[in-house]
Specification:
It is built from 16 helices and 27 strands. It is globular, with a radius of gyration of 24 Å. It starts with 5 loop residues before the first helix and ends in an 11-residue tail after the last helix. 47% of the residues are buried.
């Protein structure tokens, strides 16, 4: 018998687009809850019907295979409906952060050439100021309250409740779908066809549109379920933004692939999250550390709560997941497994590693998921590095993107022999665990020493008064660059720059401790909580005045 293929090992119903898995779940278990939205239950049968109606509507508006459909929405059932409905007709979905302002929105609409945009009424004013300068032909608006039940079972964020007004040349999503029959076309779609375009965060330069295919999505959904033990019996909680690749993978793709029930929140709120977990028996959650910290601060660890939780993937953004915090969380939840979520990037549809829950290794991001190859290569020669040797992380698997939209040179630079050259620094140990150690582009060179921001941040966060920290490099007349730290103090604490510099000097190598510290009320971050160091760099550049200040401390 031939060796089993990845397809044989992963896919229950074969390698096919995600929306076809939705159709099969709708046929097999139409009454199964798919989305629980503040108490409103949308079943798989209903979700199939709504997505069919949206696909039919787009076709009636002459939206065709390959056309780009922008989703300028926060978390809501309408995001899922528009996402899957557009992909049913072969359109390319391009999610837009709902926090974007005019120039950010215009850039993505212009670069992607989106013909259609689906947005919330409260964000229409942002589009209105630039609409005539874009290629957008069709605007569809929706209200986050449209799917709310009469009596919500969870606290509803006040910003979700807005006064709707009639808008000219704008189609109301719910009214339109209610009047549209569920009769979508069935185009001949290829599994390797581009179906999603997510824009990179633009740490350096302008954001680029990473083109992802139906194959990329179904592979990572299946591999994520297998590697993390997600089954049809699980109930998940979605608090990460669906407009971000990690939130999309866990909050939409895994759910639809496996046919499970998900409690969807517009945004994270500790009280709503606690109620959701306990009321609906949530078993599986992807969080970021500040979310867990906020719940721990509210509930403490004296009495077990959230005991339905069995598995909690957690990402360190600005606040590391420590063994001590993990122990507190396990005490609170009566044993829920919590660990670093995974390593991944937009260009691989994320989720390239998973942590073995029976062999958690702190300081690592786990092992490659099934079907994934990870190499550590010398960034100068491209040669593979020995184990336990630092180099550039290179990733190859069926989740690797098709390239950057209209950027062949950037695509060629990112891909080599099927591997994505990530620009990330890491190493693999003898047991195959991956250590993520930072980004080459953010590396700080201090007197010839290589300093990675994450390394310094992981040390600074141990200061008893610090809640969050981010590190960048700044120019120095003697050392080339030195470290500058931006910190947020814990509630009720005060922290002086001098105090932290002296504390750090005693605990870090001479080239690593920060020479400058700035205390802020908050750190700039994406919707998922990822700290935006580029914003801090821009802040530093805008406030630097060589004639005003003395050089940083030597």
């Amino acid at each position: 018998m031939a060796n089993p293929t990845i397809s044989d090992m992963l896919y229950e119903w074969g390698e096919r687009p995600l929306h076809e898995y939705l159709r099969m779940h709708a046929q097999k278990t139409p009454g199964q809850p798919a989305i629980i939205w503040y108490g409103r239950i949308i079943t798989y049968g209903e979700l199939e019907d709504w997505t069919d109606r949206f696909a039919t509507f787009l076709t009636s508006q002459r939206v065709a295979v390959g056309d780009r459909v922008a989703l300028y929405l926060g978390n809501c059932p309408q995001f899922v409906i528009a996402f899957l409905g557009a992909q049913k007709i072969g359109a390319i979905v391009t999610p837009v952060s709902p926090a974007f302002k005019e120039w950010e929105l215009q850039y993505q609409l212009d670069h992607s050439g989106a013909r259609v945009i689906v947005l919330s009424y409260d964000n229409y004013a942002v589009l209105a100021s630039i609409r005539d300068q874009t290629a957008v032909e069709l605007v569809v608006a929706t209200d986050y309250c449209d799917f709310l039940p009469e009596t919500p079972t969870l606290p509803v964020p006040p910003e979700m409740v807005v006064s709707r007004v009639h808008l000219d040349n704008v189609a109301d999503l719910i009214e339109t779908l209610s009047a549209t029959p569920a009769n979508p076309p069935e185009p001949d779609l290829e599994i390797g066809q581009v179906s999603l375009m997510i824009y990179t965060s633009g740490t350096t330069g302008s954001p680029k549109g990473a083109m992802l295919t139906y194959r990329n999505a179904i592979f990572k959904a299946a591999a994520g379920c297998v590697s993390n033990g997600v089954t049809a019996k699980d109930v998940t909680l979605a608090t990460m933004p669906l407009s971000h690749i990690a939130g999309l993978l866990v909050g939409l793709n895994l759910v639809i692939y496996q046919g499970i029930s998900e409690v969807l929140l517009y945004r994270f709120d500790p009280d709503a999250a606690v109620q959701a977990i306990e009321q609906y028996g949530v078993t599986w959650w992807l969080s970021v550390v500040p979310m867990n910290r906020a719940i721990l601060d509210r509930l403490g660890t004296k009495s077990p709560r959230l005991t339905s939780l069995q598995h909690n993937l957690c990402t360190s953004f600005g606040m590391p997941l420590t063994e001590d915090l993990a122990h507190q969380w396990q005490t609170l939840t009566n044993g829920c497994r919590i660990h670093e979520s995974s390593y991944g990037l937009t260009e691989t549809h994320t989720g390239d590693t998973a942590m073995p829950v029976d062999a958690i290794r702190w300081g690592t991001v786990g092992k490659p998921v099934i079907g994934c190859q990870i190499r550590i290569v010398d960034p100068d020669t491209g040669q593979e590095c020995p184990v336990n040797t630092q180099g550039e992380i290179a990733v190859r698997n069926p989740g690797v993107f098709a390239g950057y939209w209209h950027a062949p040179e950037a695509t060629a630079a990112a891909l080599r022999d099927g591997y994505v050259l990530t620009g990330d620094v890491g190493k693999m140990d003898d047991d195959g665990y991956l250590y993520f150690q930072g980004r080459f582009k953010e590396m700080i060179k201090v007197s010839g020493y290589s300093v990675f921001p994450e390394d310094v941040e992981s040390l600074l966060i141990h200061h008893p008064k610090i809640a969050q920290v981010a590190v960048i490099g700044i120019t120095h007349p003697y050392h080339g660059e030195v470290v500058k730290a931006y910190v947020v103090a814990k509630p009720g604490e005060t922290l002086s720059p001098e105090e932290l510099i002296d504390w750090s000097k005693e605990r870090m190598a001479h080239y690593k401790y920060p020479r400058e510290v700035e205390v802020l009320a908050s750190l700039p971050a994406t919707g998922t909580g990822k700290i935006l160091r580029r914003i801090l760099k821009e802040r530093q550049q805008s406030t630097s005045d060589p004639g005003r200040n003395q050089p940083p401390r030597a």
